[in-house]
Amino acid sequence: MKRIALTLFAALMMVAVYADNPIEIKLGSRNFLKDNASANVSFDFSKTLYKEDGLLETSLTAEEYDRYTSKAIMAFAEAFNHASRRLRIDNSEDARYAIDIVVDKIDYFFSVMSLVPGHKHTFFGTITVTNLDTAEIVCELNVTRLKGGRDFSLEDSFYKCFAELGKELAKL
Asked: pTM surpassing 0.70?
């Protein structure tokens, strides 16, 4: 009886772990992650809503905007390359894939009543992967409410959100 109960408990835990995947495939497959190739990555922050107040570009000063976006891209690439076994982001001219990330919304809040209090960011957007040799879309992903970026510093929380995106994309 104990063995059956433990087996059911383990099965329910596995369902709970895999139930909350914020990245879902809309089109294509994730086989591009298994290629020994390089990729270029580009981000589109032009229509990003930030903190429910307005566009990211108008919510920050020009200096802050440039610093936030460039460090976010670096954090994404570092986390992706660390988590991925084969595909690498290196923005070289001989890359096989182009990863285009459109950032729709970045939600922000400060949590006091949690185990880890501090600034938290969540990510909403779409990711399109294109094969540069054939110019066809290999995979299109939809990201809804990727919880990442938990830190006492507002900037570090923002960067950790993109690092979490890179890690989750590589684990897909």
From this structure: yes
81 to 87, 103, 161, 165: CA distances (angstroms) = 8, 20, 16, 12
What are the CB-based long-range contacts (under 8 Å, 24+) for 53-61? Answer: 56/103, 56/106
Residue-wise pLDDT for 119-153, tens only, equals: 888 889 999 999 999 999 999 999 998 888 778 88
128 touches 142 (CB < 8 A): no
- φ/ψ of 53, rounded to 5, equals -95, -35
pLDDT digits (tens, 9 = 90+) for 61-96: 788 888 888 998 999 999 999 999 899 998 888 899
| Surface-to-core class of residue 5, CB atoms within 10 Å of its CB (0-12 exposed, 13-18 middle, 19+ buried) | exposed
